[in-house]
Amino acid sequence: MLGAIGLLLACQLVGEVVTRGAGLPVPGPVAGLALLIVILRLRPGLAARIRPTVTVILANLSLLFVPAGVGVIGNLDALSAHGPALIVVLVVSTLLAMLAAVGTFIGVRRLTERPAP
Amino acid sequence: MTDVAQLWSYLSATPLLWLTATVLAYVLADALARRLGNPPWANPVLMSVCLIAPVLWITATDYATYFEGAQFIHFLLGPATVALALPLVDNLDTIRRSVAPILLALLAGSVVAVCSAILLALALGLPEAVILSLSPKSTTAPVALGVSEAVGGIPTLTAVLVILTGIIGAVTVTPLMTLLRVRDWRARGFAVGVAAHGIGTARAFQVNQTAGAYAGIGMALNALLTSLIVPLIVRWLV
Hints:
- Chain B: The chain crosses the membrane at residues 6-29, 41-60, 72-89, 101-126, 157-180, 211-234.
- The complex is a heterodimer.
- Chain A has helices at residues 2-22, 28-42, 46-59, 66-70, 76-113.
- By secondary structure, chain A is mostly helical.
- Chain A has 2 domains: 1-59; 69-117.
- Chain B has 2 domains: 1-76, no CATH class; 87-238, no CATH class.
- Helix content of chain B is 82%, strand content 0%.
- At the A-B interface, helix 1, helix 2, helix 3, helix 4 and helix 5 of A face helix 2, helix 3, helix 4, helix 5 and helix 6 of B.
């Protein structure tokens, strides 16, 4: 378990150093994710060793968003002033984004899996 | 007998109290969601916030004090993002076969998420600082905060809008996809990952492992794309 946590933290650290050092617009953890993909491809045996820890983390991903979510109490002014409008924007925009993504995914998949003669 | 006021002043000065409260609230919320069979509306993040926020309000605890304890959990968002590499590698063969749908759906979902939020907010007459704070709402929290700051938004407001977006996506994805009769777990997962980041991804993992892996891909790719396109779109629309 500690080995897995060490590996995740090390990937994030390298990701932060590289992106900040090079001034890339990519977030550090996302660069760390890309690095871990490369490491897992080079050393496939590592996957089995980090799997138990990673499974626990991803199964409880929701917990990690609770502290930011509680931040709602610090923004009650902005939220109560514009609450209804903000909720409309968030709901409509999120539904539109999901529709655009799922429609494009299925449309392109059909085109590429069964190319027109 | 222990002086209650003295005990409280000790507890409220250490990170222990609010760290424990956050974990316990989540354990309770997650157990309740499981017992109910993980229905879309019983979102663990939403339920945990609804348990903690009133306690903070009653005890007159400000967010900065709460966050001293909760930061240890918040910090884990970074390593958890890195951990998404494992389901990605597990699904690399199927991902290779759907590169074109993934990249085009990413572009469509990401651009629609940013543009629709800005245009709707403009139409409803929201102030500029709020519109800028809204623009990166579909991407994962650590990325959205950086983007918000860069374009002139309010990062703490962005954090809340990002979480609300995640909850909205997680609550609506199952009914929406069922209504549209979408049975492809890859498409369902990918869409919710692009539109509703990690909270949507957590929901996808609750429903189906393939959907979860594709949601993780959508979230990771959208973290990249949003940080690139928001500054351009903001300059063009706002």
